[in-house]
Amino acid sequence: MRMVDLIAQKRDGEKVDIEDIETFVREYTDGNIPDYQASALAMAIYFQGMHKEESSALTKAMAASGDQLDLSAISGTKVDKHSTGGVGDKTTFILSPLVAAAGVPVAKMSGRGLGHTGGTIDKLEAFPGFQTELDQDHFLQLVNDYKIAIAGQTGNLTPADKKLYALRDVTATVDSMPLIASSVMSKKIAAGADAIVLDVKIGSGAFMTDLDSAKELATTMVDIGKSLGRQTVAVLSDMDQPLGNKVGNSLEVQEAIDVLRGEGPEDVRELSVRLAAHMLVLGGKVEDVSAGEALARTYLQDGRALKVFRDFVERQGGDPALVDQPERLGQASFQIPVKATKSGYVTHIHAANIGQAAGRLGAGRMTKDDDIDYHVGIELYRKVGEQVQKGDPIAVLHANEESVEELVQFVRDSYEISEWSAEPRPLIFSEME
Questions:
Q1: Which PANTHER family does the protein's record reference (predicted)?
Q2: In this predicted model, what pLDDT tens digit does every residue of 159-196 receive, in sequence order?
C-alpha cells in the first residue's frame, strides 16, 4: 500500500480496500506514516465520509492496535454502557448496580475526565481509598463473583485512536461522523463486552446539538457494533439542560445514591431505568424493555441495587459507610447562591455553560495532569418549566473560594427566564437497534 494512493482514493470518494485500512492503522500506530499524510487522509474522510465496511474495518483495526480485554472467563453475557458525554451525567452509578443485582455481569472500563467535570473514575475516587487500578485477574474475579467491577482503562487501550484523535483535534477534523463513531466503538470493542448500550446525547450540553446529527451518529455506531459481533442498542436522550440537579464529582455521587435510595431527581431515575432495561434485555434476563424497566424499578424500591452499590464500593477499597451517609463525602467551604433577576418560568438552561462553570470552580481538568477538587460544583434549584420569582435562588455554587462573582453572573446568564412557560423537551427522543 502506498499512502498517497490511499489518500487519493478517499479524496475521490472511492471505496478503499479493507486491508489498506488495517495497514494504515498498524503503520501509523508504529510511527511509520507521518502525521501530514494521516492528516490528509482524515481530511479526505471528513469530506467524503466512509462506507459501512470501511468504518467497521477502521474500528476493528484501532481496537486491535493495543490491549484487548478478554472477558471470556466471565460467565454470562457481559454488558456495557457508553454515554457520548454531557453535564451531570451520573447514570453509570445507578444502572450498573441495577443490572448486577439482576445477575447480569457489568465489566466496565472507564476513563478520567478532561473538561468540565471528572470522568466515572474520578467520581468514584471521591470515595477515599477507592481502587480503580485493578489487575486483570482481580477485575475478572470481581465480575465473576459479584457481577460488577469498574476499573480505569489500561494505558495501552486503543493507542491508534489516541494518536489519531490528537491529530484530528489540531487539524479541524474532529467533527467527522465515521471518525467519531469509530473512536467511540473501538474503545468499547477493546473493552471486551458482548453487548453495548449507547446513550447518545442531544442538545446544548452535548457533542451533537441537533436530533438529525445524533441519529446519524447513533445509526453509525449501532451498525459498527453489529458488524463486529456485538449486540448494540442506542438511546437518544436529552442534554439541553443538565441531567439531574447536581454537577460536580462528589455532588453527582451523592445524587446517584439518592436515586438508589428510591429518591432523587426524576430525570436521572427515568433515564437510568431505561438504560438498565436495555442492558437487562441484552443480558438475557428479560424478554423486553417494559419487563426490564419493571425489574429495575423493583430493585430501586426494595433497596437491592443500593446494597449492590454499597458492597461494590467496599470491595474496591472505599468506605461503605459513606454510601449510608453520603454527606460525609465532604463539601466545599462556601455555598454561594445565584439569584434570579426577574420573575417568570425557566425556559432553557445552557447545559454547556453550567459544565464550564463547574470546571472553572475546579470540578474538572483542562489538562490530564490537573488536580480535581472533588467537592466543588453547581447545584440547580430550578429546572426548565419551573416557576421562579425575582430574588429566588435558581442555583448554588459549591466553591472553595469566596470571590466567584464572575461565575455567579455566568451561571445566572445560563438561565433563560420568560413570561410564558416553554413546552418541555422529551427526556428520550428515540431508540435504535
A1: THYMIDINE PHOSPHORYLASE (PTHR10515)
A2: 999 999 889 988 999 889 999 999 999 999 999 999 99
In the numeric block, which cell numbers belong to residue 372?
480535581
Rg (CA), the chain: 22
Q: Which residues pair with 282 in a beta bridge?
A: none
Q: Please, are residues 279 and 197 in contact by the beta-carbon 8 Å criterion?
A: yes
Amino acid at 16: V
Phi, psi angles (nearest 5°) of residue 365: -130, 140
| 161 annotated active-site | yes
Q: Give the active site residue among 80, 89, 122, 161.
A: 161
Contact present, 346 and 384 (Cβ < 8 Å): yes
Please report where in the chains the cell 431527581 appears, as a residue: 265
398 is catalytic: no
Active site residue 382: no
- 66-101, pLDDT tens digit by residue? 999 999 999 999 999 999 988 999 999 999 999 999
Q: What is the dotted CATH code of the domain comprising 330-418?
A: 3.90.1170.30
Task: Give the confidence band of 114 by pLDDT, cuts at 50, 70, 90.
Answer: low
Catalytic annotation, pick one of 168, 188, 269, 310: 168
Sheet holding 387-388, edge to edge: 387-388, 344-349, 415-418
The neighbouring-strand residues paired with 110 are: 152
The CA–CA distances, whole Å, from 429 to 80, 135, 199, 271 equal 21, 39, 11, 11
271 burial (CB, 10 Å; 0-12 / 13-18 / 19+) is: buried
Domain ranges (residues) in the chain = 3-49, 79-324, 330-418
Q: What angle do CA 384, 118, 42 make, to 5 degrees?
A: 95
Query: 3-49: what fold?
Result: 1.20.970
Q: Which of 378, 373, 318 is nearest to 124 (CA)?
A: 318
Report the 10 Å Cβ neighbour count for 390. 11
- CA gap 277, 76 in Å, rounded: 17
CA 297/CA 305 separation, integer angstroms: 10
Give dist(CA 282, CA 300) in Å, integer.
20
Fold matches, 79-324 and 330-418: no
Domain 79-324, CATH: 3.40.1030.10
The model carries a pTM of 0.94
Catalytic residue among 60, 116, 187, 285: 187
Name the pairing type of β-strands 377-380 and 393-399. Answer: antiparallel
Strand-strand pairing, 393-399 and 334-339: antiparallel
